[in-house]
Amino acid sequence: MTSKKQIITAYRIAEKISIRNLNNIDVILESTIIRKSSEEIELHTSTESRIYIFNFGTIAFFNCPKIKQRQIINKIAKEFSTAMNGIQADLYAISDNIPIKIGDKVQVDFDIIKIPERHNDALRIIALLLSHSVVIDYYEQHVENLLELSNTQLAQIKKRWRIPRETQKLINFLVECMITKQQIITNLF
Protein backbone atom coordinates (compact mmCIF):
# COMPACT_ATOMS: atom_id res chain seq x y z
CA MET A 1 0.00 0.00 0.00
CA THR A 2 1.50 3.32 -1.02
CA SER A 3 0.23 6.84 -0.70
CA LYS A 4 1.61 10.34 -0.78
CA LYS A 5 2.98 12.03 2.28
CA GLN A 6 0.69 14.34 4.14
CA ILE A 7 1.93 16.91 6.63
CA ILE A 8 0.92 17.89 10.15
CA THR A 9 2.09 21.42 10.94
CA ALA A 10 1.79 23.08 14.35
CA TYR A 11 2.15 26.77 15.28
CA ARG A 12 2.44 28.44 18.66
CA ILE A 13 0.36 31.59 18.28
CA ALA A 14 -0.41 32.59 21.88
CA GLU A 15 0.36 31.80 25.48
CA LYS A 16 -3.18 30.51 26.11
CA ILE A 17 -6.34 30.00 24.08
CA SER A 18 -9.66 29.83 25.89
CA ILE A 19 -11.37 27.02 23.98
CA ARG A 20 -14.68 27.72 25.69
CA ASN A 21 -14.72 31.22 24.20
CA LEU A 22 -14.32 30.06 20.60
CA ASN A 23 -18.03 30.39 19.94
CA ASN A 24 -19.19 29.63 16.38
CA ILE A 25 -15.67 28.71 15.30
CA ASP A 26 -17.11 25.98 13.09
CA VAL A 27 -19.23 28.54 11.23
CA ILE A 28 -16.40 31.07 10.96
CA LEU A 29 -13.94 28.46 9.66
CA GLU A 30 -16.58 26.70 7.54
CA SER A 31 -15.86 23.38 9.22
CA THR A 32 -17.41 20.70 11.42
CA ILE A 33 -16.52 20.18 15.08
CA ILE A 34 -15.38 16.60 15.68
CA ARG A 35 -14.28 16.96 19.29
CA LYS A 36 -14.47 19.80 21.80
CA SER A 37 -13.40 20.01 25.42
CA SER A 38 -11.98 22.74 27.63
CA GLU A 39 -8.49 21.72 26.47
CA GLU A 40 -8.87 21.29 22.72
CA ILE A 41 -11.08 21.49 19.69
CA GLU A 42 -10.79 19.35 16.58
CA LEU A 43 -12.39 20.50 13.35
CA HIS A 44 -12.89 18.82 9.99
CA THR A 45 -12.98 20.95 6.85
CA SER A 46 -14.66 20.20 3.56
CA THR A 47 -11.26 19.49 1.98
CA GLU A 48 -10.56 16.54 4.31
CA SER A 49 -8.22 18.67 6.38
CA ARG A 50 -8.13 18.64 10.16
CA ILE A 51 -7.58 21.62 12.45
CA TYR A 52 -6.56 21.09 16.08
CA ILE A 53 -6.64 24.03 18.50
CA PHE A 54 -5.08 23.43 21.91
CA ASN A 55 -5.59 25.59 25.00
CA PHE A 56 -1.82 25.90 25.56
CA GLY A 57 -1.64 28.29 22.59
CA THR A 58 -1.11 26.13 19.52
CA ILE A 59 -2.92 25.31 16.31
CA ALA A 60 -2.08 22.20 14.29
CA PHE A 61 -3.15 21.39 10.73
CA PHE A 62 -3.34 18.06 8.94
CA ASN A 63 -3.56 17.90 5.15
CA CYS A 64 -3.97 21.66 4.82
CA PRO A 65 -2.09 23.88 2.33
CA LYS A 66 0.21 26.55 3.84
CA ILE A 67 -1.78 29.42 2.37
CA LYS A 68 -5.00 28.07 3.91
CA GLN A 69 -3.20 27.64 7.26
CA ARG A 70 -2.21 31.31 7.26
CA GLN A 71 -5.74 32.38 6.36
CA ILE A 72 -7.18 30.31 9.21
CA ILE A 73 -4.64 31.56 11.76
CA ASN A 74 -5.26 35.18 10.72
CA LYS A 75 -9.02 34.66 10.92
CA ILE A 76 -8.76 33.08 14.40
CA ALA A 77 -6.45 35.86 15.63
CA LYS A 78 -8.85 38.50 14.30
CA GLU A 79 -12.15 36.94 15.39
CA PHE A 80 -11.05 35.51 18.74
CA SER A 81 -8.34 37.86 20.02
CA THR A 82 -10.23 38.25 23.31
CA ALA A 83 -10.10 34.46 23.83
CA MET A 84 -6.32 34.43 23.44
CA ASN A 85 -3.76 35.56 26.02
CA GLY A 86 -0.26 36.59 25.00
CA ILE A 87 -0.76 36.61 21.23
CA GLN A 88 2.63 36.49 19.49
CA ALA A 89 3.67 39.41 17.34
CA ASP A 90 4.67 37.01 14.56
CA LEU A 91 2.06 34.26 14.42
CA TYR A 92 4.29 32.06 12.23
CA ALA A 93 7.59 32.42 14.07
CA ILE A 94 7.38 29.23 16.11
CA SER A 95 6.28 26.23 14.07
CA ASP A 96 7.22 22.70 13.12
CA ASN A 97 5.89 19.95 10.90
CA ILE A 98 6.19 16.23 10.35
CA PRO A 99 5.22 14.12 7.33
CA ILE A 100 2.59 11.42 7.80
CA LYS A 101 2.48 8.50 5.38
CA ILE A 102 -0.33 6.00 5.24
CA GLY A 103 1.44 2.66 4.80
CA ASP A 104 1.44 -1.01 5.74
CA LYS A 105 2.44 -0.72 9.39
CA VAL A 106 3.06 1.71 12.23
CA GLN A 107 6.55 3.15 12.12
CA VAL A 108 7.87 6.22 13.89
CA ASP A 109 11.15 7.72 12.73
CA PHE A 110 12.74 11.07 13.45
CA ASP A 111 11.56 12.61 10.19
CA ILE A 112 8.36 10.69 9.31
CA ILE A 113 5.50 8.78 10.91
CA LYS A 114 3.80 5.92 9.11
CA ILE A 115 0.38 4.67 10.12
CA PRO A 116 -1.64 1.86 8.50
CA GLU A 117 -4.79 3.93 8.04
CA ARG A 118 -5.92 7.50 8.45
CA HIS A 119 -7.20 7.12 11.99
CA ASN A 120 -8.58 10.19 13.79
CA ASP A 121 -7.12 9.27 17.19
CA ALA A 122 -3.65 8.66 15.76
CA LEU A 123 -3.73 12.00 13.94
CA ARG A 124 -4.92 13.76 17.11
CA ILE A 125 -2.09 12.28 19.19
CA ILE A 126 0.49 13.24 16.56
CA ALA A 127 -0.94 16.80 16.43
CA LEU A 128 -0.87 17.01 20.24
CA LEU A 129 2.74 15.83 20.50
CA LEU A 130 3.90 18.11 17.69
CA SER A 131 2.10 21.03 19.37
CA HIS A 132 3.85 20.25 22.66
CA SER A 133 7.15 20.17 20.78
CA VAL A 134 6.47 23.62 19.31
CA VAL A 135 5.76 25.05 22.78
CA ILE A 136 8.92 23.45 24.15
CA ASP A 137 10.90 25.00 21.25
CA TYR A 138 9.46 28.41 22.13
CA TYR A 139 10.45 28.11 25.79
CA GLU A 140 13.85 26.72 24.85
CA GLN A 141 14.56 29.88 22.84
CA HIS A 142 13.19 32.09 25.60
CA VAL A 143 15.23 30.38 28.33
CA GLU A 144 18.35 30.53 26.15
CA ASN A 145 17.91 34.31 25.87
CA LEU A 146 17.43 34.57 29.65
CA LEU A 147 20.59 32.53 30.26
CA GLU A 148 22.63 34.81 28.00
CA LEU A 149 21.30 37.84 29.85
CA SER A 150 21.98 36.24 33.22
CA ASN A 151 25.59 35.50 32.20
CA THR A 152 26.02 39.19 31.40
CA GLN A 153 24.45 40.26 34.71
CA LEU A 154 26.50 37.79 36.74
CA ALA A 155 29.73 38.78 34.98
CA GLN A 156 29.10 42.41 35.93
CA ILE A 157 28.40 41.48 39.55
CA LYS A 158 31.53 39.29 39.71
CA LYS A 159 33.67 42.02 38.16
CA ARG A 160 32.53 44.64 40.69
CA TRP A 161 31.92 42.27 43.61
CA ARG A 162 28.73 44.11 44.43
CA ILE A 163 25.17 44.41 43.21
CA PRO A 164 24.81 47.39 40.87
CA ARG A 165 22.91 50.46 41.98
CA GLU A 166 20.43 49.95 39.17
CA THR A 167 18.72 47.15 41.04
CA GLN A 168 15.48 47.75 39.14
CA LYS A 169 16.97 46.06 36.06
CA LEU A 170 18.08 43.12 38.18
CA ILE A 171 14.68 42.85 39.85
CA ASN A 172 12.93 42.99 36.45
CA PHE A 173 15.20 40.24 35.21
CA LEU A 174 14.48 38.05 38.24
CA VAL A 175 10.73 38.63 37.82
CA GLU A 176 11.00 37.67 34.13
CA CYS A 177 12.77 34.45 35.11
CA MET A 178 10.11 33.58 37.66
CA ILE A 179 7.28 34.32 35.21
CA THR A 180 8.91 32.17 32.55
CA LYS A 181 9.35 29.31 34.98
CA GLN A 182 5.68 29.56 35.97
CA GLN A 183 4.55 29.65 32.31
CA ILE A 184 6.57 26.57 31.47
CA ILE A 185 5.15 24.65 34.40
CA THR A 186 1.58 25.80 33.73
CA ASN A 187 1.53 25.36 29.97
CA LEU A 188 3.30 22.03 29.79
CA PHE A 189 1.56 20.49 32.79
Q: How confident is the prediction overall: mean pLDDT?
A: 84
Instruction: Encode the helix/strand succession as letters.
Output: EEHEEEEHEEEEHH
How helical, in percent, are the residues? 40-55%
Number of strands: 10
Beta-strand content bin: 25-35%
Describe the global form. Answer: elongated
Poorly predicted spans: none
Class derived from helix and strand content: alpha+beta
Q: If strands are numbered along the chain, what order do they take across the biggest sheet?
A: 3-4-5-6-1-8-10-9
User: In angstroms, what separates the terminal alpha carbons?
Assistant: 39 Å
Strand count, sense and closure of the main sheet? Answer: 8 strands, mixed
If helices are DSSP runs of H or I spanning 4 or more residues, what is the number of helices? 4
- Rg over alpha carbons: 20 Å
Oligomer: single chain
Question: Helices, strands, pairings?
Answer:
Layout: E1 5-12, E2 16-17, H1 25-28, E3 31-36, E4 40-45, E5 50-54, E6 58-62, H2 66-79, E7 84-85, E8 94-102, E9 107-108, E10 113-115, H3 120-160, H4 167-188
